[in-house]
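Please go through the protein record below and explain what the tokens say about the fold. Record follows.
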Amino acid sequence: MTNDNRERFRREATGERPDLALLCLLIGNERDAGARGPGCPDAATPGGDAAIDAAQIELDRLAGELPAGLPPDAPRAWAEALRRLLGERYGFHGTPADYRRLDSSLLQAVLGRRRGLPILLSVVWLEVARRAGARVYGVALPGHFVVAFGDPDGEHVLADPYAGGRTLSAPDVDLLVAHATGERRSVPRALLRPADPLETVLRVLNNIRAWAAARPEHSDVRLWALELALLLPHHPLRLRLEQAQLLVERGDFVAGARALEEYADLVAAMEPSSAESVRREARAARARLN
């Protein structure tokens, strides 16, 4: 993908009010249309600005099909309206097989297939509801992303787009988290707070990285997911090390060694032994040029 897409992503991510849908669509633009394999998008899938415009139009169209006049202080009515429209009429939901597909993490593809990971389906719910005037926000539960309608500090209703928009009771939420983490406990209220858009975008990119890390033949996908994550104004420092090591793995020894040295400089004051270990990796990478 061109540098223009990266620059647009960077500008949006560092803007005053980042647009979650646009950032997810720019992620979809990054995927290499020439890379093929199980789970990759079809070569005929349109990309670029045309695909972004088409996706935005589709979100607007879906929002226009919600019932008019829903009161803003009726979260259950909004949750039910979204369930009927997106879950029942249009069949948006997820299946275990979706975790094996890259396009389950790409908003353009999710809108077309009406299948995806919980977080991307939640983005669809969020954007359709927001366009229609709902008070709605994402909730980043451990291992499973859902949406909430209403007031985070007052009356609100949680819904699971992966399950077609099924509303969730407190015990349902506990079970979801237990299933994802293997730990049975009551979910603390702090975990039900609205998710920050940029944290949501980072979580989408982490899912893409995890998909590609399990498939070494798609190291190019892992690399662009890392490079986008590093454009976010706040990101874990360890992503810089992962990017540097991946560059070396892909045979880009000069760029990889340089990135390793830059990472070592960043952590030297806090972790001198780690920094020296990374510098040894950089020297080894440069040695492979001879």
User: Anything to note?
Assistant: The longest helix spans residues 48-64. The CA atoms of residues 25 and 53 lie 9 Å apart. The first strand starts at residue 136 and ends at 141.
